[in-house]
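Hi support team,

I've been running sequence recovery on a batch of backbones for a student project. Most finish fine, but this one hangs at about 90% for roughly twenty minutes before it completes. I'm not sure whether the input is malformed or the queue is just slow. I've pasted the structure tokens below so you can try to reproduce it. Let me know if you need the job ID as well.

Thanks,
M.K.
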């Protein structure tokens, strides 16, 4: 692999993510500490973020995988109610307005097993080792 090439990690089948529906969580390493990332679908596209609120570094979902508020239009932090635009990760309401979730790069592509979602990790945010992937 070239230095600039990144190892894509398969996250889930594309059909597992529905618009405004439950997200998929994956264990990660961020700056050498344990972390969680999540993936959601919004307006037909898949987005991924570090599961860490921009207000206080807490995970957004109290109920695992529930990142959208009731309208399905915004991601919401369950702790103090910050709401984020799903396509940019920008906080548009709540105590950290204007701040952003840490975005991760994702893509959907066809595989022999069907269409799937992949995470393209970058430098300081990487998938946890395979034996720690349950979260
Ligand atoms: S920790 Fe998310 S809004 Fe306060």
């Amino acid at each position: 692999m070239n230095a600039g090439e990144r190892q894509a990690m398969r996250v889930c089948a594309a059909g597992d993510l529905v618009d405004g529906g439950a997200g998929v969580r994956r264990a990660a390493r961020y700056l050498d500490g344990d972390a969680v990332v999540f993936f959601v679908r919004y307006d037909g596209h898949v987005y991924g973020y570090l599961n860490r609120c921009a207000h206080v570094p807490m995970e957004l979902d109290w109920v695992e995988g529930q990142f959208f508020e009731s309208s399905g239009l915004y991601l919401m932090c369950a702790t103090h109610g910050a709401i984020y635009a799903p396509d940019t990760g920008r906080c548009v309401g709540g105590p950290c307005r204007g701040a952003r979730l840490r975005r991760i790069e994702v893509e959907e592509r066809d595989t022999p097993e069907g269409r799937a979602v992949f995470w393209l990790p970058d430098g300081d945010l990487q998938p946890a080792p395979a034996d720690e992937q349950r979260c």
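--
Follow-up from support: It reproduced on our side and the slowdown came from queue contention, not your input. The pocket of FE2/S2 (inorganic) cluster is lined by residues 53, 55-56, 58, 77, 79-82, 94-95 (CB under 6 Å). No action needed from you.
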